[in-house]
Design a protein that fits this description.
Blueprint lengths: L1 H7 L2 E5 L4 H13 L2 E5 H11 L5 E4 L4 H9 L4 E4 L13 E4 L2 E4 L4 E4 L2 E3 L3 H18 L1
Parallel strand pairs: 1-2, 3-4
Antiparallel strand pairs: 5-6, 6-7, 7-8
Amino acid sequence: MQEESKKMNTHKILLVEDDAEISEMLTNYLSTENYEIACAVEVMQYIRKSSVVPVIIISAKDTEADKTLGLGLGADDYITKPFSNNPPIAAPVILTAGDLVMNLSDYTVTERGTPVELKAKEFDKWCSIAKQKKRTDH
């Protein structure tokens, strides 16, 4: 009975912390407070399977391995801290599929240089296809 009560009072939380010791400490604490912790990697994989929303990682970790890992998980940009006073802006994300060029920054599509009008759902579908193709080509 007490176990069922605990499950009913469990809250979900996304914990994003790139310091392993701090992450472990917070995970242990939040677990004792009846939080179910979602892993950032799992969330990133879910986002990439279901959406083309741009993802920017801002981290103090600045090694090439960290950047490669972040971008490999599906981030569109990886910015290291500290950064200048100018707000960090990701470079335009361009996807190509054959003669189609999709700009994820301004949601435009061209085919052989000619603009193509797509509804939002069509744009999302084509971007998902292009991103999947891009991942399988590497």
